[in-house]
TrEMBL record:
Name of the featured protein: Tyrosine phenol-lyase
Residues bearing the modification N6-(pyridoxal phosphate)lysine: 260
Cofactor(s) listed: pyridoxal 5'-phosphate
UniProt entry keywords in alphabetical sequence: Lyase, Pyridoxal phosphate
Subunit structure: Homotetramer.
UniProt GO MF annotations: tyrosine phenol-lyase activity
Family annotation (NCBIfam families): PRK13238.1, tyr_phenol_ly
Gene: tpl
Family from the record: Belongs to the beta-eliminating lyase family.
Statement: the UniProt record of this protein carries the keyword Lyase: yes
Species whose genome carries this gene: Wansuia hejianensis
BP GO annotations: tyrosine metabolic process
């Protein structure tokens, strides 16, 4: 591997958190007590935590300083005004409704934009997004390009919407029966795959012709912008800020979890262009989140998010962020470990189907792989496969996604390249004795979003 391709961290470390490595025997006991669910492991028993990049970021000195200026007024906080101004500047949306995190925004959008029985096409489902859509009577339809479901196919912009699928859905169901198009940038469960600017433009043109709105999941939009700058013709010399602004010019609004590309530990928002939808969202946010000027966030957290959004536009920051993830992916590829290709923006996804070919999908190979990786190394990861996909709300049968993966999710500004080396070594060592990984079965299965709290036992 050519290490010169990977820039050093564009920051200095000012504060540290001590972590410890417990013994393998202790980890075997921990995972069994956790029901082989990595979500149920105590943080203090984890050595390198790659469960998620959501809210696990390291904030900057400017963000911490901003938190000391929190205006915790119940209404009319100055920090809300700063966040509102920042969202207008960065994304171009005139209206902002803050929420406690991204799923709060998903709930609001689903309630104001979906009529029961309407279809919500999107470029691959996400767990909480689909839950809110279905809970409000929507019917999710996957219209991502077919190539996104092929883990080993290394092509750019696998997150693109298939325009033929979208047009066919409109023709079959009628434009009036399409609530809106949900466009995620990037696509998490496809492996953090980006969407091209050309595809965003084309989706906007098609939906405009039929009077259909388009809402983005903006959670990792800065990562998406980097891929556009790196790989799409005509954007090499544009700034990240310019690319982000253009991306969202093709949408009617967006939900965002600030806990990812906002580089904070909590917070999110719903941003809109339509004033009528905004007024509806303002009424509902009082019921579910809080006053429209804080929406479940403290003043200090709104300030940190406003500053974090600006910091995420810095090229040096996002370049290091993307390439650190790519570094881990390339190390695993060189060792022959099967992963989703190309490496996406926020995580490396192990392809559990090829990693554990001896396990049937109903034996939850990705869940088993994540559990065994923890025992092997103290590294915590997350299942993104049949367990996360849940059950069909009508038939009760398991959804069986083509992608059965384990997500190694890299928090922002937290770990170094040496940490990535340790993770790579652990995965490679586990791959050498992958046949020892046993399948799992449910001991406890909750009805909703089961991957968070389900418990398993080895078969």
């Amino acid at each position: 591997m050519d290490i010169s391709k990977y820039p050093a961290e564009p920051f200095r470390i000012k504060s540290v958190e001590t972590v410890k490595m417990i013994s393998k025997e202790e980890r075997e006991k921990v995972i069994k007590e956790a029901g082989y669910n990595t979500f149920l492991i105590d943080s203090e028993d984890v050595y390198i935590d790659l469960l998620t990049d959501s809210g696990t970021n390291a904030m900057s000195d400017k963000q911490w300083a901003g938190m000391m200026q929190g205006d915790e007024a119940y209404a009319g906080s100055k920090n809300f005004k700063h966040l509102e101004e920042t969202v207008r500047e960065v994304f171009g949306f005139p209206y902002l409704v803050p929420t406690h995190q991204g799923r709060g925004a998903e709930n609001l959008l689903s309630k104001i934009a979906i009529k029961p029985g309407q279809y919500v096409p999107g470029n691959m489902y996400f767990t909480t997004t689909r839950y809110h859509q279905e809970a409000n009577g929507g019917i999710f339809v996957d219209i991502i390009r077919d190539e996104a479901h092929d883990a080993g196919l290394d092509i750019p912009f696998k997150g693109d919407i298939d325009l033929n699928k979208l047009e066919k859905l409109i023709e079959e169901k009628g434009a009036e029966n399409i609530a809106y198009v949900c466009l995620a940038v990037t696509v998490n469960l496809a492996g953090g795959q980006p969407v091209s600017m050309a595809n965003m433009k084309a989706v906007r043109e098609l939906t405009k012709k039929h009077g259909i709105k388009v809402f983005y999941d903006a959670t990792r939009c800065v990562e998406n912008a980097y891929f556009i700058k790196e790989q799409e013709e005509g954007y090499k010399d544009k700034s990240i800020q310019e690319i982000v602004k253009e991306m969202f010019s093709y949408s009617d609004g967006a939900t965002m979890s600030g806990k990812k590309d906002g580089i904070v530990n909590i917070g999110g928002f719903l941003a809109l262009r339509d004033e009528d939808l905004f007024l509806e969202a303002k009424e509902l946010v009082v019921v579910f989140e809080g006053m429209p000027s804080y929406g479940g966030m403290t003043g200090r957290d709104m300030e940190a998010l406003a500053i974090g959004l600006k910091e995420s536009m810095q090229f040096e920051y996002i370049q290091h962020r993307i390439l650190q993830v790519r570094y881990l992916g390339e190390k695993l590829k060189e060792a022959g470990v099967p992963i989703i290709e190309p490496v996406g923006g926020h995580a490396v996804f192990l392809d559990a189907r090829r990693f554990c070919p001896h396990l049937d999908q109903e034996e939850f190979p990705a869940q088993a792989l994540a559990a065994n990786l923890y025992v092997e190394s103290g590294v915590r990861s997350m299942e993104r496969g049949i367990v996360s996909a849940g059950r069909d709300i009508n038939t009760g049968e398991n959804h069986k996604p083509k992608l059965e993966t384990v997500r190694l999710t890299i928090p922002r500004r937290v770990y170094t390249y040496r940490h990535m080396d340790l993770v790579a070594d652990a995965v490679i060592n586990l791959y050498k004795h992958k046949e020892d990984i046993k399948g799992l079965r449910f001991v406890y299965e909750p009805k909703q979003l089961r991957f968070f709290t389900a418990r398993f036992e080895e078969i």
